[in-house]
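Posting this for the archive.
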Amino acid sequence: MLLAVAGGPEVGRLRALRRLLKTLVADVYLLERDGAVRGVVAVVYRRSLAQGGLVATIDALELLGESSAVDRAGDAKLLAACALSRAERRGCVAVDAAITAPEAVAAIEGAGFAAVAPQRWRSLRSTAARGRTAVADAPEKG
């Protein structure tokens, strides 16, 4: 079930998930109700020079299975609260999230998150697949 939440190429998802679950810099929590997994939240930790300490990133907050809109909203709130609580216990100075699912966004905004300036992002998957780095592909200055 967690494989559906993991990103990246399908052939490498199991390995990536195993590596994430074994690391000390990430936590993955499951929400279980009536014997079924109803949601998952993944929190990744990093040191930030800009923030002056440990920062948590809510990397994924996914709701699984079928349930009412009210139950889904409640589940999203529980998962967001779990992530925040864990980050506080770890001593984080800030928590960020780059999630887009409407229920997840509503839950984190309800927990006090605010939208900030857009973050810049670039995938390295395509360059890694070619066996080169972005630096090697950059045009020479001259």
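Strands lie at 26-33, 36-48, 53-63, 94-97. The chain has one domain: 2-137.
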